[in-house]
Design brief:
By secondary structure, the chain is an alpha/beta fold. The chain has one domain: Rossmann fold (3-Layer(aba) Sandwich), CATH 3.40.50.880. The protein has six helices and nine strands; from the N terminus they run βαββαβαβαββββαα. The protein has a nine-stranded mixed sheet with strand order 2-1-3-4-9-8-7-5-6, with helices on both faces. α1 runs parallel beside α6 and α5 runs antiparallel to α6. It starts with 12 loop residues before the first strand and ends with a helix. The mean pLDDT is 95.
């Protein structure tokens, strides 16, 4: 899939691993398309889709979220292939971005445990950037704390040698970086209003179990309240991610 204007600079191509149809790349994908990137989207919910054997020819790897867990490889055997691609990316110096499940996959392949969080985070939560987060190129121009959208029950530990970039009250490990080119985000800064609405419908039983009808209403209310400022921050982070990729391509 090519989704951007043709530019005279050399072609830039990213492999995007999308685990389920409703959890897309959102603002980040749109921003990359507008910048002229070609996104090779592999929708793994479709059993006919296969992953490439290597990252040769790609200038970036993005792994999105999903309701499965990193340790469910028997149920989702393609996760073995994702692990192999991450290993290749680590050795080859490819920029990589993982979101939610994607971040947990990156952390696991860097040797860190992925475990159940003490309690799920579903809805809007404040995250606080650490000192290292404030100095990270991924968060350049963002405030030291801001609300983000969350939907997860697992969490990662910070891998050895990685930088701890952000924390929340209910989940200390919210973001990390490794070697200034690998970034894991537990939260969903990529989401659009449409994506949140779709998740509330598709994962309705989960949010009801989490907080009842009040949690649904509160999430909808905060989405309306926070959307404009959220979009600006998401756009800034997406552009920061592109700057990291452009520096390394």
């Amino acid at each position: 899939m090519f989704c951007g204007p043709v530019e005279k600079k050399k072609a830039r191509r990213a492999l995007v691993i999308q685990n389920v149809e409703i959890e897309g790349s959102g603002v980040i994908g749109h921003t990359m398309c507008r910048a002229g990137w070609e996104l090779d989207l592999r929708m793994m919910e479709d059993p006919r889709v296969v992953l490439p054997l290597s990252l040769r020819g790609y200038q970036a790897l993005i792994i999105l979220g999903g309701p499965m867990n990193v340790y469910e490889t028997k149920t989702y055997p393609y996760l073995y292939q994702v692990d192999e691609l991450v290993t290749q990316g680590l050795y080859a110096g490819v920029p990589m971005l993982g979101i939610c499940l994607g971040a947990q996959i990156l952390a696991k392949n860097l040797g860190a445990p992925v475990v159940r969080n003490d309690k799920p985070e579903i809805g809007w939560y404040d995250v606080q950037l650490t000192r290292q987060g404030l100095e990270s190129p991924l968060f350049a121009g963002l405030p030291d704390h801001f609300p983000v959208f969350q939907w997860h029950g697992d969490r990662f530990y910070i891998p050895e040698g990685a930088l701890h970039l952000a924390a929340s009250e209910d989940c200390t490990e919210q973001a990390f970086s490794y070697d200034d080119r690998v970034f894991g985000l537990q939260f969903h800064l990529e989401v659009t209003v449409q994506m949140i609405g779709t998740w509330l419908a598709a994962y309705h039983d989960e949010i009801l179990d989490f907080g009842g009808a009040a949690a649904v209403a509160e999430t909808e209310r905060f989405t309306r309240k926070l959307w404009v400022s959220h979009y600006r921050r998401a756009l800034r982070l997406a552009r920061n991610w592109l700057a990291v990729c452009d520096r390394l391509v």
